[in-house]
Structures are given as structure tokens and as C-alpha cells.
Fold each of these.
Amino acid sequence: MKRPAIICVDDERIILESLRDELRNNLAGDFTIELADGGHSALELVAELLEEGYHLPLIISDYIMPDMRGDELLAKIHQISPQTLKVMLTGQATIDGVSHAIQHAKLYRYIAKPWESEDLKLTVIEALNAYQQEQKLAAQHQELRKLNHALEEANLSLEQRVAERTQELSNALASLKMAQESLIQSEKMAALGQLVAGVAHEINTPMGAIRASIGSLNTALVRSLSDLPLLFRTLSEERWADFQHLLTITQNHQDVLISREERKARRRLTQILQGYGLEQAEELAMKLILLGITDGVEPLLPLLRSEDCDLVLNTIHTLAIQRNSGKRIQLAVEKATQIVSALKSYARQSNNTEMTETDLCKNIDLVLTIYHNSLKQGIEVKKDYNKVPLICCYPDELTQVWTNLIHNAIHAMGGHGEITIQIQPVETNVIVKFTDTGRGIPPELHHKIFDPFFTTKAVGEGSGMGLSIVQRIIERHRGQIQVESQPGCTTFIVTLPLSSMAK
Amino acid sequence: MSKPVILCVDDEPIVLESLRSQLREAFGECYIYEVAQDADDALEVIDEIQAECTDIILIVSDWLMPGMKGDEFLIKVHQRFPHVVKIMLTGQADEAAIQRVQDEANLHKCLFKPWSEIELITTIQSGLAQL
């Protein structure tokens, strides 16, 4: 770093030299002292020094010089080096000259000739300090500006980064939402899938009965068609009356299914018939039992003893088979229709996105119908339904809630136990309670069970989304779900407001 | 000594009635046709029949029933009466359960609902022929 230069300008050589000497004595060699003997040479010197990168803290100039007046010179220097402090030194300055220098050159001080050595020294030292201060301030100012600039840039890039990050996050959120939707959908499909196997059984059972009954019906019809003409042709008045009597009393008979009682009745009737001395008592007893006749056989004795007995009993039996087959087909069709309509409403509701007034009892029964197959395996369902008003809700979503709670209950009980479903109005709410007799949920897990992906089931058995979705649905209905559990008694309590304005 | 017994087990009354009707049609008075609505009930019926010195020769059992399922029931029966012909009739195939009955109860055949009369009868006939 070059030493700063102090410039002295005077047209008298002697003054210049004495200035230099005094300055050198006082400034201990920290500065270069440059001399100029007139205005023009001073300007040249300044330009040269600036070009070479010198600091010019101070210039001391005479006022009256042949080529240029001091105030004029200082004003010019001020234009090229404003930071340089200017001191004017003269014996005969005019007020005009000094004020011109103050105005146009920011004159720092005016020293009269002959100057006091101490005065010059103090003035110069003070000026140099002022310059230094000025320089420092300027440097600090510069530094501050830089910092400010850097801050502005940082701020700008921060804003940009925040914007980018926000975009990333909202993209992530959007894809999470999509993932959630698809999870809800797959949870629904999984629940449906579990049902399908059971439903297949539910439908195949009545189908089997229908197929078998139609077979029986056809065979019996063929036999009737061959028996009846014979019967009409050959039967005596008495046997015809017996036939009609039997037809009437078997009209409303349905097969007695309780094997044990039937066996007892058969044994008893066999003995009775043997008591009347009838041959083939066991077979006769069997035929009568099939017609629903377990006692009071005395009026039938003439028929039973007659040779037309087999024909009459067989014909009645064949007709009874047709009647019973018809009834069975009817029952089976009702059963199949029931399960199909439950499935249909299960599926139809899935597209329903509007709130509708719904009977909660029916809504829950729909799920019970679909789950009938899993439930009948060893689970007793107790219903305690109190009268509740219709509530405005998304029925398909609530169906999903009940499906989940019932499915979990079955799982928790290992397929054996008791589910109690209670529906009751409490103040402005409807409270639905599902209580199972399963193994219970340990207290430390109570707050976790509603977390997404939390599951106690084996991998592949459950997504862990069930209860989380349940909670989401209940919240959408502005309701609440709570759990109370101890081994052997777990209750999920769903509270739904009567005036449910969904979110 | 009474006639031998064929026992049908299913939780659906209409299925039992249909089966009994078909069996009666096919085999007439050759056998006594007993029914039970679940496995426990069936085991009691078997005990009672035994007590009456009557032989049980064939069982047609549903698989999916409340309480004890068909596979467990037939295995239990097999332990006591290995010669009884066992036929399973189910609306829902559970491969593992069928396999188990085959391995542990010498299952004669598994039929699927809705069954056909011919299949049911020929299966029973082929089972009885082995006796």
C-alpha cells in the first residue's frame, strides 16, 4: 500500500520547502509530501497521483498564484478528488475568494500567512484525522451497502426457495391425497373381497336347495301323473274320503327337522301301529311321520289296513313333496334375493356422494346381512336398537364404518363370541355402540389404533387404514369415535350429531 | 336291528330338506335319513343312533357351519367311526380344509353347492359300494 500523499502548492519555492520541512517534522514519515509551484502543475500532479492509486488526504494551496488563483485550483481539484481536504494559505485573500473556495471546493480551513507552526501542525493533523474518519466511514458504508445487497439477494433467493419448496410440498400433498384416496378405495375393495367369498356361499346354498327341489318336484310330478289316474279309477268311497282327509291334514305340514323328536315319534308310532297288529309297522310309521302324522292314527286304521294303503300314502306323499319343494324354492329365492339386494345397495351406495336422510338401523342391518355368513360361524349378534330419527349422512361411508367395526370385532374374537350393537338417541346425538367379547386392546395402544397404517394383523391381512378411515369418515359427519376396552369387552362408541352438516 | 342311517348336516333347513328329499327319492326305504343342523347336534344324533344299535354308514356334511366346521366334525367322526363314508358339501371351497379332511378323515368326495342330483347320488353310491 502506497503512503498517502499530501500536496503543497505555492509559487514561491521557499514557502513550499518550509511547508514540506514542517510537515515532515510533524508527521513522522507516514505521508509522502508532494510539491507544486502553480495551479496547472498541481492539477497535473493530482491527476498523476490519482492514476497511480495514491490516497490524497490533504492539499494545502496558496491563494495568489500567477497562473491560477487558489480558490479556482481547489474548486477544480474538488471536482476530481472530492474526498481530499483543502486548506488555503495566504497573506491577502479576499472574502470573495475564500467564500468561493468554501462554496465550490468545500474548503476545510483557511490559514493566514505567516502561519503559526503550531496552528499548521494542528490543522494538518486534524485534517488527516478527519480524512481518515471519512475514509473509514466510507469503507464502512461500502461494507454496509455490500451486506445490504447480499441480504437483499439472500432474501430474494430465500423467497424463491420458499416458493420452490412450497410448490414441492403442495405437489407432495397432492400425491399424498391421491394415495390416500386410492388407499380408501383399496380398503373398500379389500373389505368387499373378504365378503365375496362368503357371499358365494350364501348364494350357492339357496341355489343348491333350488336345484335339488326342482329335481324332487319334477320326479314327484311324474309320479303323481301316473298315480293319480289309478287312484281316481280304483279308490272306493271310503278310501277316497280318507285320501281327502289326509290331503287336508297334511296341507299345512312342513318337514319336521328336529331329528331327535322325529326319531322318538317314529319309535312311538311304530309301537302304536304294532299294537294295532299292523305289519310293516316301521315303514308305515315312517310314511306317516313324513306326512306330519305323529299320533291320532285310529281314524286312519281302516285305510292303513286296506290294500290301497300304499297307493294312498304314496300319492299323498308325492303331492306333499311337490308342495314342500315349492315352498323350499320360494324360501331359497327369498334368501338369494335378500343377499343380492344387500350387495346391490352396498354397491349402489358407493357412487352416492350426496348426503341423504338415512335410517341408521337399516344401514347397520345391511352390513349384518352381508356379514351374515361370517357371523353365523359362531358369533351371536345382539341388537339393542332404540328408535332414532333419520340422520342426514353419507350412507355408503357409514356402511364402511360399520363394516370395519364388525370386521375388526370378528377378528378380535377369533370368530367366536358375541357382538352387541346398541343404537340410542342421546340429546342432540345418535350414539352407536359396538361391543365385542374379544381379547381387547391394551391401554397403551388405545391412542394408536386410529393412526394410519397401524395394525395388529399379520402382513397382508389388513392395511392398517381401516380405523383411520373410520375416524376420518366420522369426523366428516362432525361426529366422534371412542374406544373403551378391557379383555373380554371392547366397545367402539360412535357419536353422530342429529343435525349432521358434513364438512 | 334297524335300517342303516345316512346323516346330513347343514345349518340351512332348506338344504337338509332338499337333500333328504333327493335321498329318499333315490334310495327309498333302504335307509333312514337323519339330519342335524350343526356338528354338535350331529355328534349327539350319532351317539343316539349308536345307542339304538343302528349303524350309521354315510355322512354328507356342509363345511361352513356355525360352531364346529365340517372338516373338524368329519375328522372327529373318523376317529371314532373310520368306516363311515364321509362326503363334504360346501358353497365355499377352502382348499386347506378339504385337504385336511382328505388326509385325516379319508374324505370320499367334496361336492360343491349348488350340487347336481346325479353327482350327489352317484357319489353316495360309489361311497356305499366301498363298504
Amino acid sequence: MITRRTALLGAAIAAMLVVTPALAADDLKLPRQSVDLVAPPFVHAHEQATKEGPKIIEFKLTIKEKEVVIDDAGTKFQAMTFNGSMPAPMLVVHEGDYVEVTLVNPDSNTMPHNVDFHSATGGLGGGALTHVNPGEQVVLRWKATRTGTFVYHCAPEGMIPWHVVSGMHGTVMVLPRDGLKNREGKPLRYDRIYYIGENDLYVPKDANGKYKSYETPGEAFADTTEVMRRLIPTHVVFNGRVGALTGKNAMTAKVGETVMIVHSQANRDTRPHLIGGHGDYVWETGKFTNPPEKDLETWFIRGGSAGAALYTFRQPGIYAYVNHNLIEAVELGASAHFKVEGEWNNDLMKQVKPPGPIPPGKSSALEGPVATQ
Amino acid sequence: MLLAMKLKVAIAAVTLASPVAVTMAPVTSIGHRDTDAGITEIAAQTFQYRSAGDFSRNGKPVEAPLGEAQLTGHLKIMTNQVTSREYASCVDDGGCPRIPHEAAMADRPMVGVSWRDATAYAEWITNKTGIVHRLPTDEEWTFAAGEKIGDDALPLVDPLDPAQAWIARYDVEANRARPGALDPQPAGTFGRNRNGLNDMGGNVWEWTNTCFLRMTLQPTGATQVTNTNCGVRVVQGAHRTYMTDFIRDPRTGGCAAGVPPANLGFRLVVDDRTWPRLRRMIAAAVS
């Protein structure tokens, strides 16, 4: 591992050698567009279909190592992040666009990092060309040759899984230029998009069973690896902490709106389920050239992939969006909520009789049918 | 079995009967006084009480009625919550289930206890002292809490649209503040209320003996209990909630939002008007 001191020394030498800031070589005669990323569960403004030709879309990812709190008990966690959020922001482009990412590793960090885009071709997804020490930045360009939702993550040699389960993973969505389509080729559109990143976290405990905290990621490494190797996470959460998408931060929608839910898991299999709702159209593997499946109750997201689901809300109320391994949802934290406003539809559901005493007679439990042997 | 169950419910009903009096109590200047055994005695006065449980009218959920209540006599209640050290004596004596806790916390409130654990403690100390100790009812706790009680009425919404009430409840729960410290704190940390009791509404919620009731409001204004579930008890503190009696570590999750009780603990009332020997016999008969 490169220590902070040698990294700083490296940065000082780099500063002496580089006189002018490096500009991206303009070998492509294409229009450029710079996009400011936003933190999940939100996604930066984008066109769902575009009439414009391919562009170079510029994004900036700044690596931030920082302490975060991951549950209501106040458990502290040494996170490594792109742009400060867990998961990292979503990048949206269209097929044929060029994605130009400036990856910044400020000298306030302690470790070298890089980035591997599953949507990119060659060079370990960019991982081989993007190693940056604290105090360095790098610019990588790759062509979006296939559509879909894809994971990106940090992949430094020797400690890939640790960086990933410390928070360094995000999502790229490459939309078809003419937008999403159903199996019959009819256009599909969404009114809102939410981006959920699932994190499996492995927090070491002390001899008394209390979660340990550390001053820096490096100090947490050995103990964390030991927990990781047992493959049982201490926390499975959405967007970085237990309850991150509940209560005041619950996702919102209105009856009649179609919501796109992108679910990204960089490390471990999961199975999202919307309690009280469905997946009207689901790209379970996240790749839009494959026709979406219809009317799913639960969908499977393979570790190391992102999937997408479209749902039109038909009834108001609170919907829980969970990892339907319910132990992970309720005991480990993988639950989010949608708060949906609108008018209740008695045709879809009605409480015909509220809870009350069991009337005597046929429906009485005591006098009900008795199993025969 | 069935007989025992019925007996249990009957006893519960006696314990739970809300002793509501219609007459105004003379306002005393004494209010409350400390006795020597860590018990505070509070003179009966009328107080505002919103009933616990679920209420409906014509098959639609409604707000629980709010009214004036008065206990039938003085209330004698522990000034502080039962501590880990006190609970440990019960464990050592074979009266209470062993629950792990940190030795450094011995003089702090005992937390991580279920209603069953708290009840075991009450029975143990009753037998040891010959004075009946029991968990307070929700009415007694509300009265004792004085100015520390929060009203849990929900905003009025269109009763024909179940989702509106649901969203309103969700918003109330989501807006609750989280306690700053989660570990139990030394007695008095959360202040002494006007009745002289410490830490009412602090970061330790307290078990009561009140069962979960489902009630129907009649056109006459009378209340009809349609279901009594004593497997769920009222828990009191910074907000009122309902917990299954074997839960030691409350949490939300799944479809629930908001802040669960940070800790479950208890304090007891002293009921020196009941004949302890009779209560022991009843307890023996139903168990």
C-alpha cells in the first residue's frame, strides 16, 4: 500500500512536472456536454430519447474517503466513495455517446484508487488506465457501445472487494437513442426515476460484540477482511445506511405516475420486491436490447449488475421496497419506502369488514372444518 | 386451559379497568412527596387522558377519545427506573431471567427487558417485601408523567380513504426526533418532572400493564371492547407505542417508519391496597 507520505511526495513531484493543466485531447470532432452529477436516489436530468447525434459527455468523479454512520445505533464506518455518496452517482448517456470521466483523488485521501466501468470495453473497464494516488487526477474516455444499466466500481489490485464493499460502486445507464421499448416495440417512458444502490457491509465487532470504529480506512482493513471472508454481512442497506430511504427521505410518487427504479448491487445477489406493487416492465439483467419481462412480483439482481423496473402506481399509500430476503430487509436494513399520494381505488382493494369479533356459527374458528385423518 | 385463560383475562381486566371518576378532585398543595424507599407518592388529581388502543365508529378508524380522568387514590410509583443492579439481584435470587448487560452500567436503568421480564421482577420484589409491586397501567403512567406526556392524536383525515390516514400516521412517525444518546444514562439525566419523577420520556421507554384493546364507539358515546390482546402491551415514553410482551429490543423495519423506543425498561407502582397473599394465590391459580 502506498502511504500518505509517499503519496504526498508523489503529488509534489507531479506538481513540479506538470506546468499547465492537462486538457483532454480533442481527437473527436463531436459536441461536448458537461453534466453535474447528483446524489442517489436521484438522477441528473436527461432525455429519455434523443434526436441529437452522439456527443462527448463529461463527468467528474471525486473520490472521498470519509467516516459515515450506517445505522440508528450510530455505528461508524470508514467509507470510500465517489462524490461522497453510497452508492456513487448514476451517469446517464445514450448509445453511441462517449463518456469522458475525470477521476480526482484529492490529497486529503490516504489511498490510491481507480475505476472499472462494466459498460466500457477493454482495459479492465478502465481500471488499468485510471490508477490515481492522492493528489492526482486522470481523464478516461470510453464509448457507450451497448445499452442498459451497468455497475462501475473501484478495482485497485489486491483489494478490490474491500474498496467495493466500502462504498465505491455506482451505476451507468446507457439509454437507446430512441428510448425504451416494450416487447412489441412500443415506446416506454417514465415520469420519475429513482436509483437504489444496495450495500452489503461487513463491520468488525469487539470482544463484547459491539461494532468497532477506526480512524482511517487502512486501520479497518485487516479486521474488515476477516469479516468479509465469512461472507455474512453485518448490514445490508440501501443508499449507505439503515433507513436512508424511509421517513422524511422516503421516495415519493403520485397515483398514475410511472416510476423507473434502477437497482444496483456491485457485489452480492439480491431480489428487490415492491410490497403492494409489481414490476410492470422489468429488465432484470438491466440490458435494454432484451425485451422487458412483464408483471413480475420479485426480480433478481445478480451481484455485479444493475437492473431496471418500470411501475405505474395505481393506489396511494406507503409501499415498502425491500430485498425480499426478508431477514436482510428487516434485520439487516435493506428496506426503502415510497410515499404515494392520490385517490384510493376501492375497486382494486376494499376492507369489506374491519377487524371484529368472529361471529358465532359457520365462520367461527372453533366450529370450523376439522381435519380428518 | 380455557378456564385459566378466561381467569387471566378477567384479572387483566381488573388491573386495566380505567378508574375514571367524574367528580373533580380538590386541588392539593402537597402534590407529591418522596418516601424513603425511592417511592414517590402523588396525590390524585384529574388529568387529560387519551385512551390507548384502536378505536372505530361505524367500521371506520377514528381518533381515540380524549377525556378527563382521575385515579381512585394516591399513586405510589418508583422515583427512578429499575436499575441493572436491582434487576441483577432478582436474577441472582432466581426470580428473573438472565439478560446480558454491561457491568459498567450497573447503576443505570435496566434495559433490554421484555414485559415478561419486568413482570417477573415485580413478582419477585412483591414476594421479597410482602408489598405488592406491579407495572403501572397506561392511565397511571400518563398521570405520573404529568407535563412529559405527549398527545399521540393523529391529524383528522377523510375516513373513506384508508391511504390518507396511513400516510398521515407515517408522516407523524417520520417526524419524531431521535434520542441523542442510546445507552441508558444515570438517573436524573432527562430531568425530574413536576411530580418528582426522574427521566419520564427520556431514552428508556417503560412497560405498562395495559393490554392492546380494539374498541368501537357507540352512537350513545359508550365504548365497546371488541378484542383484547394481552400478548401486546402499551409501552410509554417520549411517545406511546405497543409491543409484543416478549420483545426486549424494539426496532422498526419493513413497512414501519420512524423512531422505535431506544430502550425498553420499567418502573413499578406500589399497590398497598391489595392483599399480596391473595394476589399470589391468584397468580398461582392461573399459571
